Amino acid sequence: MSSRFVHRWFFLVNTQICSSPRLQRLWRRFMAQPLDRATLRAIAERALDEWDICAAELELISISENTVFRVDTGTGETYVLRIHRPGYHNLAELNSEQQWTAALKRAGIGVPLPRLTPEGHGYATVPVPGSTETRHVGIVEWFDGVTLSSIIAEAADMEALALHFDQLGRIAARIHNQAVSWQIPKGFQRHAFDAEGLMGDTPFWGPFWILPELKAAEREHILNARRVIYRTLSDYGKDGETYSLIHADLHPHNLLVNGDQLHVIDFDDSGFGWHQYEIAVALDAYRKPPHFEVARDALIAGYRSERAISDAAIELLPMFLLIRSLALLGWLHERPEHNKGDRVRNLIQSACRQAEALGI
Which among 3, 92, 231, 272 has the fewest CB atoms less than 10 Å away? Predict the structure, then answer.
């Protein structure tokens, strides 16, 4: 292979990467080294110095999309320290997330406030020991409580299930009320779950139509669904009544209940999108009858008690549930470590059934 060909190949690859935010994210993720627990702890300890926090206890909570530690200061203060994975959000996007959550807090919605560094920064960029890489680290207040998903799992009857989804609908509507009326600050940067971000050539969560698990007929079915949905979303538009900033991951695992208080956590996926997509995410894990019908109706009733949403908008919910399934396929394709057992195969079959039910 000639050096001229190699240089040309690298030029083309770099040009494609530079012109596509999604490819930039994938490239940074590909180039980043996986970190062991000792290294992650070292990063967390180094980050605490940036906040002048002396931790009496530093407990690893989870290693998933991001790495999360619980920080106890020994003086009654408890925080969440989050090491952000490379290739998902840049510093401007992370700062924008904190701008929005601060605005939600001012609107009376229970969200975690960031702890700022002495210099007033919401994040610190910390070097990875023994590497030229860095990680963005943020610290927010800790909320005690039980996840709403755990409470729903123990619900004794359909009436209790309905009560909890009514709560979820109310908080979703309050988030959307704030988002629609909020004046977006200059320089604010977040991704969009719009027609391009969901069904375009480079969707935010990955090209769901290239999975190797897809059979030929399934791929054609999904490609056709993608084309139809793209046109529908493009024609539907971004009216302020149904499109704004959304949490985008508002399922019951991301709501904490403490007495009569309901807190919303994990705004990592938040961006611009349709309100029906928010509702679809909340319902996604509860699709089996009779739970789905009860959960859906209660969520919509709770939502409408705080914010109007038309019947015509709700009629699009089955399409947004299909969109959620397709987005998850793209997400799993780019994160094969989460593809356990028959998860992808079952999701493919579910997506095809949903498309067929919609006449696509």
Answer: 3
Alpha-carbon distances of 173 from 128, 179, 274, rounded to whole Å? 40, 10, 12
Helix axes 275-283, 317-334, angle to 10 degrees: 70
pLDDT of 339 reads 63
What is the distance between the alpha carbons of residues 79 and 279, in angstroms, rounded to a whole number? 29
User: What is the reported pTM?
Assistant: 0.90
- Is 20 exposed, middle or buried (CB count within 10 Å of its CB: 0-12, 13-18, 19+)? middle
- DSSP labels, 221-255: HHHHHHHHHHHHHHHH---TTTEEEE-S--SGGGE
Strand partners, 141: 79
- Candidates 70, 150, 145, 80; CA nearest to 110 is 145
3-state secondary structure of 326: helix
For 148-202, how does the pLDDT look when each residue is reduced to its tens digit (9 = 90+)?
999 999 887 899 999 999 999 999 999 999 999 999 999 999 999 999 999 999 9
Rounded CA separation 300/78 (Å):
35
Same domain, 260 and 208: yes
159 and 131 in a single domain? The answer is no
Q: For residue 207, what pLDDT band results from cuts at 50, 70 and 90?
A: very high
